[in-house]
TrEMBL record:
Its EC number is 2.7.1.49, 2.7.4.7. The keyword Ubl conjugation does not apply. The gene is thiD. Pathway: Cofactor biosynthesis; thiamine diphosphate biosynthesis; 4-amino-2-methyl-5-diphosphomethylpyrimidine from 5-amino-1-(5-phospho-D-ribosyl)imidazole: step 3/3. It is an enzyme of class 2 (transferase). It comes from Phormidium pseudopriestleyi FRX01. The keyword Transmembrane helix does not apply. This is Bifunctional hydroxymethylpyrimidine kinase/phosphomethylpyrimidine kinase.
């Protein structure tokens, strides 16, 4: 086969970009995003915002990258490839958020999924108050979809969230800031609401639920969900379909979550390889 024949037969593969931090343990962040993109048949590209030293036991160090380096990574990808979807994850500080906002606007990046990494599922704030304000007021309104957990949704909406009606009210309040679609995640909720999510896009207010998976190994679920949504958008799915399919993907990944390390392990991003309890 000639080189020209090989080129002509190369598949056209959608491209997604993740702008997020590195997880040295491989369960969340850039590593989880790229695995998720690959699972969906989407070519994954990345712009690292910070480097963490972490494992299943927790995070021991975080180093932010220079904003010039972050912008250069985004430029290098976008100037060469047709990026169909973008997701953001850990944006460590105000300067990094501002740099990402500037590139998103100037490069007209579309299908932006904002995972507003501000507060952990247990309620611990991860970025300072100035960064939270900028993320809420400037980055979130640029998004096609924002995916806050319970505590992040409380910050974005200014409402307490304890019930399903609270989740619905928060989703509608967050939508008013300008983002096209809001997915308030229920992973941090108690009782029957754990794992129940609420979607609102200005017209459709829908409660989304899949089977509950009992496992301690949930590391990377938020990153994986937002990456799967971005991958599905890159594949041409509409927003609600992208969200529903991403939620189903995470549920299956949780069913085969990995028991590795001494703490909570990560979800299994390539679960079909492990069905039946072994690598097939």
């Amino acid at each position: 086969m000639s080189d020209m024949q090989a080129i002509s037969q190369s598949p056209v593969v959608p491209v997604a970009l993740t702008i997020a931090g590195s997880d040295s343990g491989g369960g969340a962040g850039i590593q989880a995003d790229l695995k998720t993109f690959a699972f969906h048949g989407v070519h994954g590209t990345s712009a690292l915002t910070c480097i963490t030293a972490q494992s299943t036991m927790g995070v021991t160090r975080v180093d932010g990258l220079p904003v010039e380096a972050i912008a250069a990574q985004i430029d290098a990808v976008v100037q060469d490839m047709r990026v169909q979807a973008v997701k953001t994850g850990m944006l460590l500080n105000r300067e990094i958020i501002a740099a990402v906002v500037e590139r998103v606007e100037s490069l007209h990046l579309k299908n932006l999924v904002v995972d507003p990494v501000m507060v952990s599922r247990t309620g611990a704030q991860l970025i300072d108050d100035e960064a939270v304000t900028l993320l809420r007021d400037v980055l979130v309104p640029l998004g096609a979809i924002v995916t806050p957990n319970r505590y992040e949704a409380q910050i974005l909406s200014g409402l307490p969230i304890n019930t399903l009606d609270d989740m619905r009210a928060a989703a509608q309040r967050i939508h008013k800031c300008g983002v096209s679609g809001v997915l308030v995640k229920g992973g941090g909720m108690a009782g029957d609401l754990r794992g129940v999510d609420v979607w609102f896009d200005g017209d459709c207010l829908e409660t989304l639920k899949t089977v509950t998976v009992e496992t301690r190994n949930t590391h990377g679920t938020g990153c994986t969900l937002s990456a799967a949504i971005a991958a599905n958008l890159a594949l041409g799915q509409d927003s609600l379909t992208a969200v529903k399919n991403a939620k189903n993907y995470v549920t299956e990944a949780l069913q085969f979550a990995l028991e590795i390390g001494q703490g909570p392990g990560p979800v299994c991003h390539f679960f079909p390889l492990f069905k039946g309890g072994r690598l097939s």
